[in-house]
Amino acid sequence: MKLKSQINQVIKEAFSKAGIDHEPMSVTDASKAEFGDFQFNGAMALSKKLGKNPREIAADILNHLDLTGVLSKAEIAGPGFINLWLDPLWIAAQCENALKDSRLSIEKRETPVKVVVDYSGPNMAKQMHVGHLRSTIIGDTLANLLSYLGDDVIRQNHIGDWGTQFGMLIAYLEMIGEDGSVSLKDLEQFYKDAKRRFDADEAFADKAREYVVKIQSGDAHCLALWQKFIDVSLGHCEEVYDKLSVHLTRDDVRAESFYNDDLPTVVEALRAKGTLQESDGAQCVFLEGDEIPVIVQKGDGGYLYATTDLAALRYRAQKLEAGRIAYVVDARQAGHFKQVFRVAKEADFVAPEVMLEHVGFGTMMDPNGKPFKTRDGGTVKLIDLLDEAMVKAKDAIKDKESYSQQEIDALAKIIGIGAVKYADLSINRESNYIFNWDKMLSFEGNTSLYMQYAYARIQSIFRKYDGKIEGEIIIGDALEHRLSTMLLRFEDVLNRAAVDAAPNQITTYLYDLVTLFMRFYEQNPILKEGVDEKMKMSRLLLADLTAKTIKQGLALLGIQVVDKL
């Protein structure tokens, strides 16, 4: 449920009854429990407009505040704050409703938006490396979240499958005289071998350049080799996506080549708008305030990334009719996207109301604060990192004797992949972060394993009880009040994370929720002998709602739970 909107509605009604002709500001979470559940500070903002003392305005609002439903208590504090307490009976009823609903009372949007999320974007010339991790999992989480909230989400994987290096690669594939099923198993080595041959053999280099022209002109033989190379390359990507439980398929691929035929049309459309200028033979768009132009066509007639991105924007806005287009791409590309977005809007490729968004992110670093590399300085393959995560995760399984080897392997995948994903998603996406195995596979702190352990612990409570859970939720003390209120905040957190494209807001919420539940579990015994039956049922229901919330929150991050560890 949208908890804040419920409180805001009560405040709005009080404004109306008090004759205050202004839209009230939104309430905020109270900073401390003694200040209530929420705080309203709009009285100070209204002071100048109404010519009254803030406490006077707060008193007037308070006098007209309805305390018979959502709220049980309200009081003025400081220069004009209004501290607000939710009614325990109302909280309990909302939690019970959430338990009965498969979506935990989280509503879908009344007016869904068609959203394109562009993420992952590997280059077909090489295997996916650790640099592709953040785009892939941040983008997938954003797509999961927006879809769950009711938006019409279109996933797009803009792979790099076009360019001069492909002439070299397919020429080498043809030269070795096989279908590529053996050599392409290690794309990294294949690329190195092709490049070494290109640098050493002038005749081969000339042939590779000829192949570039042939690919671009639609030569059937060269395109067949190119397609074989792309198919094998995508197979490598799909192996990574499968391990990461990322929802990208071949149907989501919109490669550079997809827009190739539209590039001349983009240039002509810009020319027709009168925005193109020639500079040193190149066709450029000069944006007011920017010294560096956007080059859309080189002097030799070739096109650049900006041209393809403009074609993609036009396609997504006009053909797919997207209302929001999010590019989950390295923060270092911020300048590029800022320019491309401006050109697209000024050229009317994209309507003014369409939201264009660069969801930038920082870099994964090693313990020395340097970009993550192998010991010999090479690029770490993403598949190798994930395999290592699963190996290390086996050490986190406490009771190995109670599992078969197959079960241990399955658990290790859930724990290991979850640890890698959660460690990344729990960081503000714009920040760099240090990759640390010990930290991410810890049972303590804001980690996936801490969340999975809390969920498993709740399941162990249910196994011990092994009876029917029925009754009603009773908010008996301050800790139960805080836990139940926290559970009702879930939808607000999800909606805020969707607006900000910020998965770490979900992880922060889950960490706070689990930490609070652990305190509740320690101080409010559930199955202990002597606990009143009604209170036992109430606490079992709160534990159940907590488990369901943890499971749903992790699912949006693409992470599974386990019933026992």
Q: How would you explain this protein's 3D organization?
A:
This protein is an alpha/beta fold. Among the domains are: 3-86, 2-Layer Sandwich (Gyrase A, domain 2), CATH 3.30.1360.70; 165-247, no CATH class. The chain has 20 helices and 13 strands. The protein has helices spanning 3-18, 42-50, 54-63, 88-100, 133-148, 165-175, 187-200, 202-217, 220-244, 263-273, 305-319, 334-346, 382-393, 405-425, 437-440, 448-465, 478-488, 490-500, 503-523, 533-556, and strands spanning 28-29, 38-40, 71-77, 81-86, 114-118, 152-156, 276-279, 282-285, 294-297, 324-328, 355-359, 364-365, 433-434. A four-stranded antiparallel β-sheet has the order 1-2-4-3. Strands 6-5-10-11 form a four-stranded parallel β-sheet, with helices on both faces. A hairpin with an 8-residue loop joins strand 1 and strand 2. The longest helix has 25 residues, at 220-244. The radius of gyration is 28 Å and the shape is flat. The relative contact order is 0.10.
Topology:
Blueprint: H1 3-18, E1 28-29, E2 38-40, H2 42-50, H3 54-63, E3 71-77, E4 81-86, H4 88-100, E5 114-118, H5 133-148, E6 152-156, H6 165-175, H7 187-200, H8 202-217, H9 220-244, H10 263-273, E7 276-279, E8 282-285, E9 294-297, H11 305-319, E10 324-328, H12 334-346, E11 355-359, E12 364-365, H13 382-393, H14 405-425, E13 433-434, H15 437-440, H16 448-465, H17 478-488, H18 490-500, H19 503-523, H20 533-556
Parallel strand pairs: 5-6, 5-10, 10-11, 12-13
Antiparallel strand pairs: 1-2, 2-4, 3-4, 7-8, 8-9
